[in-house]
Every structure is written in structure tokens, then in C-alpha cells.
Amino acid sequence: MKKVFISVDLEGMEGVVSKLQTLRSNPDFGLARKRLTLDVNAAVEGALLAGAEEIVVCDGHADMENILLDDLHPEAKLISGAMRSSLQMQGIEGGYDALVVFGHAGGGLTIGGVMDHTYNSMRVYNIRMNGVTVNTEAVMNGMIAGYYGVPLAVVIGDEAMVNEVKEFAPRVEGVIVKSGFSRFSALSLSPPKAREAIREGVKKGLARAKDIEPLTLAEPIEMEIDFRDAHTADAAELVPGVKRLTPRTVSFTGDGPTVFKLQELLLFRLLDEYPF
Length: 276
Prior knowledge:
It is globular and about 50 Å long. A hairpin with a 2-residue loop joins β8 and β9 (185-188). The strands form 2 sheets. The protein has a 7-stranded mixed beta sheet. A 5-stranded antiparallel beta sheet has the order 6-5-10-12-11. The longest helix has 21 residues, at 29-49. The protein has helices spanning 19-22, 29-49, 137-147, 159-168, 191-207, 230-236, 256-269, and strands at residues 3-8, 54-59, 76-79, 98-102, 124-129, 132-133, 152-158, 173-182, 185-188, 221-227, 243-246, 249-254. The termini are far apart. It is built from 7 helices and 12 strands. It is 30% helix and 24% strand. The chain is α/β, with parallel strands linked by helices. It has 2 domains: 3-211, Dipeptide transport protein (Rossmann fold, 3-Layer(aba) Sandwich), CATH 3.40.50.10780; 221-269, no CATH class. The mean pLDDT is 95.
């Protein structure tokens, strides 16, 4: 276990139950990003205990500038900033031995998912890959990693998300830091207890990563996206190769790298800010 990629989001972490913690303009965001950085450090420590020699952390929440570099574990490298070719997996093609998915929310496939959504809660409703609904970002990221032969070894987040991932990757090591009562309410571990669980879970998952089969998608890959409103589909249809299936649904078929880059374009770059 020499090279580990950690994909980081915020909604799935302990104590995060509303936009008070997830939006830069809101009062508890500073506390949440500090806590997130310390939680990531626990994952880095677990990776080091498992023998990792290189650890790359990819900040994948909102503007993708959330992790406090000054407070990040000195043995980790950080990918940050939102102008990139992958939403949450920038650079995964660089020859990694395992993937750790950290703090992602569920995709709304299990009752009790805290702040569940699919990349952009205001614009995206469903994503299907080769006809299978893959709304859970952790699963999608596992499939992107799997395309490059990298197994999804550990997922860290709420109980609903972990359960959703295990439907696709039953051997993944799941670390549960909170359990939802509703979309905006949860029972959370204390940060010290969460970090202890993260450290041990990452160590355990990486120790058996070689026995976990990467998630794969057969090419050509057909991606279908159901948007929440038609004008987003109007914009997506302007991209060459994108087909309009219904007023709110588009599709694209191609090889893995092209489909993965198109996710960045259609789910993030192309989205407008119309207030209706």
C-alpha cells in the first residue's frame, strides 16, 4: 500500500446537519472546515499506519477550497480549487493503490440520509450509468477510480451513505460517524470518537485493499442525467454528443475519461443561476 487517494466532501461528517455548516457565507462554516481538516488528518494517520508512502487529499466540496492547508497533516498533499477536469477525483489516473471516500452524503436511495443529494441538490435529480441509478457520489467516485484499477477501500460518512455504497461494493470498509433521523437531523459521534473510528477504519480497510475488486463500468458507458428543471437540460443539449431524451433528461455515450470529464461540465460548469 504505497499510494492512497482521499476524496473529501463535507456533508457526511459528524455534526453537519444543515447549510449552517456547509456554505461559506453561513456562521458555522469555519467550525465545520476546521473539524473537517482534523477528521482528514485522522484518515491520513490511518493510511500511514497501513504503510502508505504517498497520500493525496482531493478537496471536493462546493468551491473545493475548504481544507485548511496550514492544519493539514504534513505527510498529505492537497488538491484544491474548482477549475479542474473532475468533480472530486482530480488526478486519480495517476497510479494509486486505493481510494478512501471521505464525508460524502448519500444519494437519497436510503431513508435517513443526512443532506442527501447528487452533486448539486438544486439542479440534479438522478444519474444512471449503463441503466443503473448511481446517485451516491461515493459510488460514482468508486467507479471512476475503478476505471483506473483503483479499489474503493474505505467510505466515511453517515449510516445511509455507507449502506448505499455497500449495495455496490459489499467488501468496502464503512466508517459511520452519524445516523440520520431525517434529512436535517442526526445522532453524531463526538469529534474525538469520530477521529478514532476514522483512523482505525482507514487502517483496517487499506490493509485489505488488495482483496477488494475495483468497481467497473463496461464501455461504451451510457450516462443519463435527470435534471430538476428543463432549462438545465436545454443548456446540456448544446454540448456536442449530448442527446435530449425527455424535457428534463439528457444522455451521453462514450469512453470512461470522456464521460467523467462531461460530468464536471454538465453537473458543475454548465449550471446557471436562474432563481426559478
